[in-house]
Automatic annotation (TrEMBL), chain A:
InterPro entries found in the cross-reference section: DUF2783
Superkingdom, taxonomy of origin: Bacteria
Name this protein carries in UniProt: DUF2783 domain-containing protein
TrEMBL record, chain B:
Segments forming domain FAD-binding: 31-369
Co-factor requirement: FAD
GO molecular function, one term: FAD binding
Keyword Flavoprotein assigned: yes
SUPFAM superfamilies cross-referenced by the UniProt entry: FAD/NAD(P)-binding domain
UniProt xrefs under InterPro entries: FAD-bd, FAD/NAD-bd_sf, RIFMO-like
Keyword set, alphabetical order: FAD, Flavoprotein
Listed name of the protein: FAD-dependent oxidoreductase
UniProt xrefs under Pfam families: FAD_binding_3
Entry superkingdom: Bacteria
Amino acid sequence: MALNTAPNIPDPDGFYAELLNAHEGLSDDDSIALNARLILILANHIGDRAVLSEALAAASKGDTK
Amino acid sequence: MPLDDRYQLAFRLYPYERSPDQDASAPVRHPVVIMGGGPIGVAAALDLGLQGIPVVLLDDHEGVGQGSRAICFAKRTLEIAHRYGCAQPMLDKGVVWNLGKVFHDDRQVYEFNLLPEEGHRFPAFINLQQPYFERFLVERVRDAQAQGAPIELRGKNRVDAVEVRDDHVVLDITTPDGPYRISADWLIGCDGASSPLRKMMGLEFEGRVFEDNFLIADITMKADFPTERWFWFEPHFKSGDSALLHKQPDGVWRIDFQLGWDIDRTEELKEENVRRRLDAMLGPDVEYELVWTSIYTFQCRRMKKFRHGRVIFAGDAAHQVSPFGARGANSGIQDVDNLGWKLGLVLNGTAPESLLDTYDLERRHGADENILNSSRSTDFITPKSKISHVFRNAVLDLAEHHAFARPLVNSGRLSVPCVYDGLPLNTVDALPEGPARTRPGASCPDAPLGHGFLLDHLGGGFVLLGVGTDVPDELEVDGVTLPGLSVPAEGDIKDRYLGNAESAVYLIRPDQHVAARWPAYDNAMVRAALARAIGKD
């Protein structure tokens, strides 16, 4: 698999806190929009179409609710 | 205000006795007075008393309050207690655990093993009800007293007012026999999160309030749960927004339920309501007895400064964290470990008073780290916005199948000793190829040595440690006697203290933190580093 799902972020707690801070005080709609921008920025950084397809599939499978 | 007990006692350990101070015509002056006889106050009394420093501890009760409260005691705490001579009964009584499981709804999403590293005297954690922890400390005080340690524990001595002067503090005390006064060269406030001393001095205690209530139920049951930490996010049994199950000694289980903010405390604490939640969790066939129940809320906050002239604060009085990560009592014990030797050196004239400002710096650094970690855990456990709840559950959904999400699951980051990186008592690392875990500022990791362990030989006073090289058996520097310990470069000591280096010399503080390290012994450098470590630089 080309998609890396092993832990790859140094300081995971710090990253998570920064992610939530970015949403601090935003309305639900603004949060959704922020997430969309973030996904597009990260997708462009990844660039690899196969990896992006795998990531989409992994995220869709997680939707168990 | 009458001197009534505010809570029931688990153990009556220091009954009121009349002191000759109460009959003195003028306030008797003591070098050190400690306010508060909880674990931090008693540990402080023990640290100073074992150094031969006369210390008087005042508490408005006659012993330890009921309720398990702090239950997770970390390796570092046990190492400090070992230095004080009371870790063994804690270890004997405590429950050792390594495995934690995290559930979301009805699925196990993740399991962790503390995987304690081999070659340490103590396990990563023990679970032990706080009253036992306190009792073992007080029993050690009694032994030390019998051997001449100048410690006095005065029960039913409530401090009602303090006058803080430049070089001493005068205390107004109420006892069952009426009021009296004493004065102290130094006053240590260990009087808990709601510290009356802090209020008497009008000092601020600011931070974040977390709008949530947690119900604790300690129960005994004959159920077949393993000795593991189980944590549920949004449990399927609906007893709370999160739930925790943890084993204690005496067949007691700690169960925590997150109740939310708008609750009726009195209603929730009614036995039938507590049992309704427990029944849903444990199932209809499990019989259990309620031992203790309580509802708590918490804040993450600290005082701006822990030292105010001749008054020094330690433990919850100085800083308060959420319970996630067991960073309350464990950090308070580290406060005492840090303060004891510094106050000792100042009192005997070896170090300048300014050394105590480094207690303030170092332990504020520790408190900030604990507050950061416990705030993040709390934000994960109790998401405060829709989007943080969405992210939290996304992490939990992914964690079951994708390893990358597991480090993001945060049900508490368990207490480890902080490293005093970049703080003034350290000498710049002269062994950069050495292991990061033993860099200046770090607490020394244990390792087997001979028939015992390395830490048995460190602490109490400064020590010069030579690994794979010889250091002088004893040096005299700036009024400090510095014994040397030369050990062979082998086994765990080699891994933990040399890394890729051929040999190393460590200057180790009385609290077993590294002050400086070099590739080889150099008298002038050791002298300079020691002077720096006692605040003379």
